[in-house]
Amino acid sequence: MKISYNGLKEFVEFDKTPEQLADDLSLFGHAVESVEKVGDDFVLDFEITPNRGDCLSITGMAREIAALYRLKINKKDFAVKEEDLNKSIYVSTADSNFCPRYSARIIDNVEVKESPKWLQEKLATYGFRPINNIVDITNYVMVATGQPLHAFDYDKIKGGIIKIRYSIKGEDMITLDGQVRKLPDNTAVITDNEKIYDLAGIMGGFKSEVDEKTKTIVLQGAIFDQVIIRKASKGLNHSTDASYRYERGVDFEGTIYAIQMASSLILEDCSKAKAGKMVDEIFQTIKSTEIEYQSGKINHLLGTNLSEQEIKDSLERLNFKIKGSTAKVPPYRYYDTKIWQDLAEEIARIYGYNNIEKRYFGKEETSVNKEFIFREAVKDFLINIDFTEVYSYSFSDSKLMELLGLKTDEVIQIKNPLSPETKYLRPNLIVSVLSQIAKNPWSPETDVFEIEKVFHKEKEWWQLCLAITGKNEYRIEKAIKELKLDTKIIQVDQKILDYLKIRRPVKYILVNLEDILNNEWKYKNKISENKYKNISKYPPTVRDLSLIFESNTKEDEIIESIKSVSDKILITELFDTYHIDNNQKSLAFHIWLQDMQGPMNDEETKEIINKIIKVIEDEYKAKLRTKE
């Protein structure tokens, strides 16, 4: 958003240069992308984060400057003489959630003409094209206060009726840009008893346009729901300055002030104009937000040591009202300040992010998660014997559970499931694994496993499920043997396969993970072997080796032999295997070399590779095929 430097000075008096102001505000949470000199002024281009809709105005940014420098904002009062115009409007809404407040005023005897030069120059600074004095004033007030305004031609509204409702399928309207827009269902519109004349919160309609013949206007300042405006804007693929602000939240208390300001400017520019009484329909009151906080928690979160008085002072600078340990949120921050952590963020901005000391975690604070390491060791073993790990959602299909003989009264039911397939939490992993296999029902060979939690009403625990399709039963048998499991292989019933449309036989095992942890499986010892080491800042050097071995040589043993040659061998990866004949096979390896002290040079690399070749040739009677 672009804001004039001189314009800011009209709202708050400060003595910083444009460049100093840009730097300070950037550290205060409002990044300034550029500072551009325009005539006798400067324009600051702010990148306003989506949660700070309150800063999409001169007033909003002036409030931030006042808080930053401990200043007071200059808020001008606008006195408007109200007269009885003998003209009325009748406001109603179909949904108070969508339009909680609607403020408006009739202004009679207006003269629609070219705007005064000062106004045109201000609007040009903010990127607006001057149209006429009425429209230009509403745009300027929106930029100044953050409250979108719109002016209707009163005589084009049948009976002064303002009905705020949702569109019906098939409806369309012509907007001010001359486009015929087909309205998505539930787009908020404003109508009289005959026609749609406004696309609420986004753009006015052609049928209520203010033009050179307009003599009486209705000046509207309303509050519209963020989500509904966002959906409508997206559905129409049409965004405006007004919708941009409504989507991010507009101050519930700002409608009256904005209409007063616009009315004052219109009366000043149109000497014969008369302002009617203010109409202010509050269909739904927005409750003020009060947040309890604890100084200790805030200091712990920020890593600071601020006193209660310093915290109170910081929040009061941002217009929070403090009573004891409760902060009352200003109405313009209603949309983004909900919890005590939000207060902590505000305090951090006042204190200065650059003033918060760096703190590092000490080694004594780390601990070994043995259960996690154990699960990872089991996964590594299963992957090494050519199983593929799958991840599933924790939900379960009641029909599938019924076919598997599982009782739904023993499992956990979701209160508000998104679909029948997500009604229960899974009682075992075969439910999830079968659902994964069903995604590729014609695959001739599928060897998968999952290690995750399962749920019953009284408890939850970790489980392992291995499943295969095809003729690879030997892999499950190997897993049972190596992991020392006391279990049997189960074949899935044909009724279940038909329900899931799986076209291959499926066999599986289910094991509670604690049963593996409690046996004498050799990988259990790896829990104590896992150690962390520093990461080198120097890139690795990769070399490939291809050698010919006897067919019965085990790949795992070769990899361990290669790793033993040097501590500078980071990774040894088998990437290609093919059998030459019954007695010989070719194995190719990626070998990653890395030094913590500096980049590997050619001489060091060549020496390590030659040592690897000699070790492999001596231990396995292998022959070098290629060397790179």
Q: At the third CATH level, what is the topology name of the largest domain?
A: Phenylalanyl-tRNA Synthetase, Chain B, domain 3
The CATH class assignment of the largest domain is: Alpha Beta
| Main sheet overview | 5 strands, mixed
First CA to last CA: what distance? 57 Å
Which regions have little confidence, pLDDT < 50, spanning 5+ residues?
none
Q: What share of the residues lie within helices?
A: 25-40%
Q: What is the overall pLDDT average?
A: 91
Architecture (CATH level 2) name of the largest domain: 3-Layer(bba) Sandwich
What share of residues are in beta strands? Answer: 15-25%
Task: Give the C-alpha Rg.
Answer: 36 Å
Q: Would you count the extended β strands for me? A: 29
Q: Could you write a compact summary of the structure shown?
A:
The chain has 628 residues and is α+β, with helices and mostly antiparallel strands.
Give an overview in words.
There is one protein chain. This protein is about 30% helix and about 25% strand. It is α+β, with helices and mostly antiparallel strands and about 625 residues long. The protein folds into 5 domains: about 1-70, Phenylalanyl-tRNA Synthetase, Chain B, domain 1 (2-Layer Sandwich), CATH 3.30.56; about 90-280, 3-Layer(bba) Sandwich (Phenylalanyl-tRNA Synthetase, Chain B, domain 3), CATH 3.50.40.10; about 290-355, Phenylalanyl-tRNA Synthetase, Chain B, domain 1 (2-Layer Sandwich), CATH 3.30.56; about 370-525, BirA Bifunctional Protein, domain 2, CATH 3.30.930; about 540-625, 2-Layer Sandwich (Alpha-Beta Plaits). A 5-stranded mixed beta sheet has the order 4-7-10-11-12. Strands 5, 6, 13, 14 and 15 form a 5-stranded antiparallel beta sheet that branches. A hairpin with a 2-residue loop joins β2 and β3 (about 40-45).
